[in-house]
Design a protein that fits this description.
About 35% of the residues lie in helices and about 30% in strands. By secondary structure, the chain is an alpha+beta fold. Helix 1 packs across helix 2.
Length: about 120
């Protein structure tokens, strides 16, 4: 829900006009905060993800002086809609399910550095 939707809902259901500031206060009183939703693909295998995290943790723990750790980052430009911040209960991570029908297009740029 957005602040604008709350303003409209109060107007329609209670025949009262409230300001955006009042709407923000209502969300705060209800213990909601604005947070960016996390995307979740149906193709993610949780077991594979857990195994990767464990292997990475073990690799970092067992590294020696000859180990090189590179820091990598990427930028992705996609035709998929952007998940913006929404109001949700404090401590609750909203999830936006993404389509996996192969219709979205994207370009990726990446780089790495040895710190």
């Amino acid at each position: 829900m957005t602040v604008g939707l709350l303003v409209n809902w109060v107007s329609l259901n209670f025949n009262k006009k409230i300001s955006l500031c009042t709407a923000y206060n209502i969300f705060s009183i209800l213990n909601y905060s604005k947070i960016r939703a996390k995307k979740l693909s149906n193709k993610i295998c949780k077991e594979t993800l857990t195994n990767f995290r464990e292997e990475l943790s073990n690799l970092i723990i067992s590294k020696d002086e000859n180990t090189i750790i590179l820091y990598e980052n990427e930028a992705i430009v996609t035709s998929e809609a952007y998940a913006t911040a929404i109001w949700t209960k404090v401590g609750v991570q909203p999830i936006v399910k993404t389509l996996q029908d192969g219709t979205r297009k994207r370009s990726v740029v990446f780089g790495a550095t040895n710190a």
